[in-house]
Amino acid sequence: METQEVAEEREQAANLPLFETKEAKGKLAFRLFSSSIFIGICLVWVYTLTNIPKTGDRGRWVWIGMFMAELGFGFYWILTQAIRWNVVRYHPLKHRLSQSSDDKLPGVDVFVCTADPRLEPPALVINTMLSVLSLNYPTDKLSVYLSDDGGSELTFYALLEASRFSKLWIPFCKKFNVEPRSPEAYFSQNFDVEDSANAEQWLFIKKQYEDMKKRIESVYNKGSVPEELKYQHKGFLEWSSNVTKQNHQPIVQIVIDGRDTNAVDNDRCRLPTLVYMAREKRPDWPHHYKAGAMNALIRVSSEISNGAIILNLDCDMYANSADSIKEDLCFFMDEKRGHQIAYVQHPQEFNNITKNDLYANASPAANKVELPGVGGFGTALYCGTGCFHRRASLCGSKYSEEYKESRSLETRKNDRRTVIELEEASKVLASCGCEKGTQWGAQMGLIYGCPVEDIVTGLTIQCRGWKSVYHNPDTTAFLGVAPPTLDIALVQFTGWSDGMFQIFLSKYCPFIYGHNKIKLGAQMGYCVYLLWAPSSLPHLYYTLSLPLSLLHGIPLFPEVIKFIPITLQGKRCILVS
Questions:
Q1: Kind of pairing, strands 88-92 and 19-23?
Q2: 144 membership: H or E segment, kind and range
């Protein structure tokens, strides 16, 4: 029984703020510097405009083009200042949340999405799954879902292997406070095993992991799961010769039932719920790519666990910090401001950045300045991975002060249906016809019709009155894999810039859709990224016009005045020519 003093301490702790907001240093100095740059830009505009050759004079159209390019440069620069003008940083106070009882913590559903076992090998996927299964969070409140848009039995087999290995990996991680929680990333670090007091257990776990990895890769190289292995789980009955990536029935398999008291690890502690889902796909039905997969996960998870908080990750982005869930819950559970927050976005950081970062994957300016700068207006850009969501906001709910009165985030089901019954009910929600005649993809879930569905979804959530947070912790919460080659990087950046420009030209343009719904600075912050593609046009013009003008003798800049120092009768003078 808890003493009265302990209960009072917990009550006081519950009323304390769970996160702080701090402004970045040097704000005044930057604003003075920025103002001086703006004056310089205006002078350049005035000079270019007043020096355009008259009609019929040589070089007139070159100068007009240069003036338009300068206007483009200046306008885009003004947009970028919006996200540098008021940079803020958020700091969760995890120690205060730790004083609360675990009973008050909400259920958390983790979504991991994969689409093709050839491009995203199952061994990579299961490392992400194992990393989130072993996070420091009550296992009875944690459920992990894998969406396999490839509908591959190879991925399902790998998940079964991971579920068995998790019985060793989870207690090992929590006993020795392992970080990162991905086995591949952890064992690839340099350890002096001989000096370790737990060398024997470390070597045992590593061997078990390597054996599991070999089994998965062996099956992967064969291209199909051998018949003798298919008897290990009833789920393999879902696959037949008629099942293909683009044509198959809905598949939902609860691999670990977290409600089952017999589902325990080697230390006899309960395991989290683990679910495999491959939504139905038919050639004559649109599947809407990742947005469709996420929406199917939202519906299926609402039937099985219905956690109030959703974390979504790409299959190559593993958990690097064991306490990432509790840190981010500080934002949602804060007494004063928590009810306003729809999602908390983490930066996209990678574990394979080269020393010189040839393809600019690290994006330090965006992660450390620009994205925190958007946070100064109460918004954050949803980047599609590494993001914690409030389920209600993701399902289309508008913000209301009623959320402040309803302090509990707990919506988890206390369902007594069998695993078979839950699976069958969930398959209906993962079918093609489930969304027909509904608001899914329009007002509910991720928005359809745009290649960059995450940015649009974040914007629509904020326009429904919700706030959002960009959180860049000292210890990186999630690490992914950056494009390793130039061609892959170019394809990725081209897809992003093209998709974001489509948003700017659509009804979701922040200046139109967000008018009177989000602050002007937030609208400008969105447009910094939505205008990536057209911002290249002024650069392209300068790249072509300057050398061509030089070759044709067309002056574009003021004539240089030479200052020649001379000495006359022992006095230093300057001769101007």
A1: antiparallel
A2: strand 142-148
CA 162 to chain centre: 24
d(CA 339, CA 409): 9
498 is catalytic: no
Q: Which helix (H) or strand (E) holds 482?
A: none
CB-based contacts of 180, cutoff 8 Å, min separation 6: 131, 186, 318, 319, 320, 321, 479
Q: Which of 109, 148, 316, 454 is catalytic?
A: 454
CA atoms of 334 and 344, how far apart (whole Å): 13
Written as six digits, the tokens of 92 are 């969760």
Any catalytic annotation for residue 454? yes
Helices assigned H by DSSP within 51-90: 60-82
Could you give the CA distance from residue 180 to residue 318 in angstroms, rounded to a whole number? 8
Catalytic: which of 109, 148, 149, 265?
A: 149
Low-confidence ranges of the chain (pLDDT < 70): 1-14, 192-197, 403-413, 560-577
Place of tokens 């990678």: 350
Instruction: Find out whether 151 and 245 touch, Cβ atoms under 8 Å.
Output: yes
User: Could you report the per-residue pLDDT of 374-420, keeping only the tens digit for each?
Assistant: 989 999 999 999 999 999 999 999 998 776 655 556 656 677 899 99
